[in-house]
Amino acid sequence: MRLSALLPLALLACLGWGARAAGQVVFHETFNHYGIAMPGFSDACVTAEYPPSLKYLEFRPATAASVYAGGMCQLPMRARGLTDFEFSFTFRFLRDAPKTLDVRLEFLLDTSGRQPKYATCTVRLAADWSGVAGVSNFHPQLPPTRVTMRDTPLNPLLGGQCYRGRLRVQGNSLAAYVEGAGQRVRIGGAELPAAPLAGFNFAGASGFDLDDIIIRQLPALPGGDFREESGAAIANRAAEYLLTIPPAANVARAKVRLGAPGAMRINLRWDDGAATPITVTTVNSGLDLPVVKSVPVARDGQTVMEAKQVKEYTPLPDAGLRFDGLFAQRGTLTCHVRPWIEGYGDPEMFGPPNDPRGLDRVSVARSWERYEAASRHCFTFEVRRDAAGIEYWIDGRYAGRRDNAAALTGIGFLLPAGGAVKDAATGTLKQAGGFLPLDITALANPGVMAAAVLPLKSGPQVVKGIPLHVAPAAANLDLGAVRENLGSYWLECDGYLSRSAFSGMPESLMLSVPNAQYRKAYVLCAVADDPARDPILTVRLTRFLSAGAGGRGPAIADTTVALPRAAVGKLPPGVTALGQVAYTVDGQPRTAPLYLVDVPIDCGSIQDVIFEEKSFAMIPQPYLDIEVLGKCDRALQQMNRAHKPDPTSTSAVHVFGITLVKSPVELEVVPAREGNAYYTHEQAAMTAVLRAREKASCRLRWEVRDVDGKVVDAGETRRRFVEPGEERVAVKPNVNDVGLYTLHFHLLDDEQGPLVAHRATMALVAPDTRAAGYASPYFTWWFNGAHLTSSDITVVGPLLKMAGIRRTLVKDEAVGEPWTLTIGQIGSFAGAVPPDQLAAKTAEYAKKIDDAMKAFPHADAANIFHESCNGGGIAPLELYGIAVPCPATSACCGRSSSRWRAPSSPRGSTAKHIRKSVPRW
Fold first, then answer.
1. Helix, strand, or coil here: 363?
2. pTM above threshold 0.85
3. Cβ pair 294, 305 in contact under 8 A
4. Which candidate in 686, 709, 816, 832 could, as Cys together with 810 as Cys, close a disulfide (CB 3.0–4.6 Å)?
5. How far apart are CA 272 and CA 409, in angstroms?
6. What pLDDT shows up at residue 13?
């Protein structure tokens, strides 16, 4: 029996679709006809039999060596000249030994010289990574690809188990696969020279077994770089599909698919002859999942195998697409096609989702294959040209821009074999009136209206004077699908507030758009005939932050609209009926009103996000997130859930189109001083910056109100812009009494009415006559740069001094001296220590205390209890006057409060050292 016959029968059944390739066998090596002598093989090779009379090759090198002597195995006459073939073989690694082998395919490039010239393609099969290591004497257009075996179902490649390697070459491209344990994994690919196969070899520095080497001739692909299939251009080999952009066009787009995990390139061509390469690569994901496995357990003096639940890394392949080279500055963009797994909670760490209808990481991972693979996803790549350069749009999402004085003249899609391009087109996009129609089709989550019939055709059109991109029924957005999934965790972090438009989560209906002040949104939507669902629509504008920043805070502009279930009687302001949508539920016909809803957006409430923020989660440039959802939750006593989906409500609204409208004039209100706080002898001042996008006229009004809401000052000014430009309006509130004031700014257009409103606060305080200095007991926590706070002491210091605060997280007293600042408490001495480590820890704490007292000689407290009590969540009972005895032998590392004063606790020694070295404490 050959090695290939040692594969489990179940494996052969599973791989029936790929175990034998169609085509004539032109070479078959079984190693059965060799005796003791093996001519043509290296000294590291012998044949072995198991069972007797059925042979395979054993390769046992002392150092790095090859299987065949003389450089390669020369093919027989009937196998020469192949350019389309499959090379397959069975291999087995040794147990408890390194697991690596190289397969070398030799291609005959030239015979005109004294010695033939070859190109060598090396494919590595190894336990850590596998794939194409490279191709010598050849310069491919695309780099070869490989995988980390940890990210494949064949991790680990076990010693003693048989696997089948397959190298398929067609159309001057190679695809490499490994089969085993019921799995078939693509490990990489490469572009090859247009040359026939001359021979092959195997090599390595460690032992392996070989058998059943088969070369089959495959049919040649059609001539040319591309072939047409179902309206798409499919690459026969690595080739570039060029989309030329006429001078009059300002938009170009195409739908692109890689076809298999790997890489492609998008080449932007400019009229100055320069080119900008953008590399698109598939990326993987993965996480530890609970599995039941047999593990060795000691029982009654013996080791037995017992089934236990353990955590095991599970690869989640083909998760998304990474775009490198989009931006002039450094930065990449990852578009998750399958869901961003970190956006879901770990049930063991975080408990069940906040919304009981939501998903967790385990459930998403275990249904991974039901989501579309990134390499099979046909993504839309679009560029929009303007006077300054181009904007990128990927699957209807704004993906940043590249400024360039040169004009874009073409886009080349350099695809690997099997890659595809379709619907490539150029055109002219008109953006008059500040309208920005959005294509929502990539978010398709249609629900019961997947086959609905609308009174409007799908595609770009003008509806009631509003340009809209109407989605087909199958691509509408069912707002009832929105879920929170991972919410608040680790005290200050929030997964729901850390998402992006590129997270690929079906429960988030969100797009990214260029950064601007959008005054309203027009939403084309229908209300399903379902009394169990709420006819609620919420339109949201913000920019979510990364999990590392804790997620977005309250800077979220939400507008919620309650829609009529039926279009009868007088409709609410801003709601226009456009007819009926026909659909079926369980075979029963139903209708729903189709509305065009004018939704105002309070963009002035997030002016810090639009104009001031410098941290961007997904795109290394300013952008905004526009999201639609149903009813929002409310602010609770301990947590603000006002921007979370209400878990008790399911929306009945289905969205078919969204158009944003920019304000013709932007309004940014800038205080004269950071913090906008002044002493009464100072002149409070603010500047209203007006930026016109186009020819426009506007009015700016402002009111100053005291804490009782009384107007104590007001003003108004008119501005006319004959062309785009900027004007600054000085606002000096005429108030001088101590107090907190609110300033209401309103920017209005004579024709369109309200444009932007902004509410600011201002404080007037009495002159600082405090004499306490370092003796002041008032302390505040200053994050000093964390969570996007300011790290500039020259900004924060004056505000702390004005507030009478002298204790904060200042670096040292030398830095805080201009504002008489010291620290609130030195160090953090929380954490229990085993008795055998107590002496070393005590010495460490002693030095820590001494260094702190040198930096903060006026400090008079130490921190021994911080936030969540080291995970225990229990305050020391001594603080409640309850005495808790602790044995002298205790390590004091449990959840009992006795750890705070036990002889074995470092806190006891720390307290003694503090009192000894700082007597005044």
1. helix
2. yes
3. yes
4. 816
5. 9
6. 31
